[in-house]
Amino acid sequence: MPTKLQDVHxxxxxxxxxxxxxxxxxxFGYSSxxxxxxxxxxxxxxxxxxxxxxxxxxxxxxxxxxxxxNYNSGGEFAEVxxxxxxxxxxxxxxxxSQGRHQxxxxxxxxxxxxxxxxxxxxxxxxxxxKTADDIAKLLSGEAAKRCLFFTGAGISTSSIPDWKGLxxxxxxxxxxxxxxxxxxxxxxxxxxxxFQNATKELHKFHLAxxxxxxxxxxxxxxxxxxxxxxxxxxxxKDLIHGNAGTxxxxxxxxxxxxxxxxxxxxxxxxxxxxxxxxxxxxxxxxLKWLKTENPSIKITQIDRALxxxxxxxxxIEGDTGKILPKISSKIQAEKTPDTKVKADSSAKGxxxxxxxxxx
Length: 359
Prior knowledge:
It contains eleven helices and 14 strands.
């Protein structure tokens, strides 16, 4: 039976965090829209990192080109020859990835609609500006328990690369068109040194996912949710919230939102305010789902510069890394120590292997 998000203990237990790190699995895939390049990398703590690059026949004018490599924590690097079963699986992944991309474009248009244009004071949706003091005041009362923080990739970029930085690790320049990236790959396709370096860098990236150092934003959110009882979910796959001491469920683990979610459930009618932190778009449609189920929900976008596609009800001007610590400081000054949410030692065993797919 899924646990209600409101009932999730905000402080992660050491046992749960250790279990998450021990069982951590990560899978990324990227399918180029123009060139039919498919690259994937995965990580399992005991097995290390694998990197696979596949180029389809539409570009190579021959059979699929495959490159596959493994790199482990001991520094051992090896090229792996994909067998026929793996090649078949990769071809199917490419087809599924391209199909998902088309569906995501349709979903994005449906969810975001007319909100594609930046909301500004001179045009676009009419919104009001809030301050950190306004949010701290709201969170200082019982209303905090009907507030939800929703964090995105920007909160972790001081510890791990964002999507653009991740692409650059394997030599892709996100500012260039796909044809130039394809030419780069073909030039380096027989260069073992290039792939060794790319796989090694990806391995560092994976380790940072597990052991990344919390940024001021993570620490501030930990103080906020444990002091006030506000809810928190994240769209991030890393464990940095956990390293800050916060039990922040992934949004895709919410069964009432995502059909394959198993662990938690959330009733949008029990949420009054959502604070969106370091996120540039509602790519999964979570905010759209909340608003559809409960039109009275108010969404506040923290960091106006990032708010290009979400059409929030309110903005907070400034950088997330400065706003959240300010909110936390205000709450700390008003709250008494005995209101702190306690960790539940019975949370042991709740952890499950986290398998992530981004395509």
